[in-house]
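Can you make up a polypeptide sequence alongside its tokenized fold?
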Amino acid sequence: QVQLVESGGGLVQAGGSLRLSCAASGRTFSIYAMGWFRQAPGKEREFVAALRWGAGRTYHADSVKGRFTISRDNAKNTVYLQMNSLKPEDTAVYYCAARTSYTSSSYLAGGDVYDYWGQGTQVTVSS
């Protein structure tokens, strides 16, 4: 089992920044990849970014490239999402997720491939 706890959400004005954290515990040695997803009211869950834990390779959705950066701290078993130049359309509940076995990087944008999910943290961007 892997437990995930997100933090760092909040209310920010457009153009501002936030850094989300996702702390993993439990069988963290089994983590192959971690991802960030978001879901706005009335919308489908949307891929934001992913990171392959061992290699450190990262992937970002086109909608956030150049503004958001996923990173990790191995010693703390924590993955981060640095969000800059925030826009009102970034408002959503942000979830982190972990996958514990290999998959092609092309599948990491799909929420169905993740085994564990955090409880989510609200990000609200005011105009």
Summary: The mean pLDDT is 95. The longest strand covers residues 18-26. Residues 47 and 110 are 7 Å apart (CA to CA).
